[in-house]
Amino acid sequence: MKNNLAFLIGIIVSVTIVFLLTYRKRKRLECKFDERQKQNLNLGYKYGFNGMLVFMMLFALVTEVYKKVNNSEMISLTMFVITSILVGITIVAAFTIFTDSYLQFGANLKKFYFTNISIGLLNLFLGISLKSYVNILVSLLMFIIAGGVFIRNKFHKEDEE
């Protein structure tokens, strides 16, 4: 039953993503980032990649020590790789949010919040119902990004006043 539910939700999410991508291509929306934002995005990618490498090295060391002491695996290789990727994405998102480069000019914040919170809630539901570690991490990432943008915009508006 749980596999059927996950399959059905996966199909619904996939169709929605394809629809949104098709809709976006039709509108021919161009990104409206200025030079400063583009530089910060590139710097964010650099920090995210380096942070992911450092995380992978440290976590690999910890898992090897754990394996030697307890004669068992601490985490599967798949979870290790996915967690490392999510750490890199989180670093990029955090850096670009707080350098005011995450969203382009004129972005629809209501749509952004709705999308992130919806994806976060869907992944939280799947993570709890399927006991999926990855879905819970993705859910946490979506909430962190939405919260970070909200906090940044709140402080940015207070700075302007």
From TrEMBL:
Keywords (A to Z) from UniProt = Membrane, Transmembrane, Transmembrane helix
List membrane-spanning regions.
Answer: 6-23, 44-62, 74-99, 111-128, 134-151
Name of this chain's protein: Uncharacterized protein
Species source reads: Streptobacillus felis
Give the source lineage, highest ranks first.
Bacteria, Fusobacteriati, Fusobacteriota, Fusobacteriia, Fusobacteriales
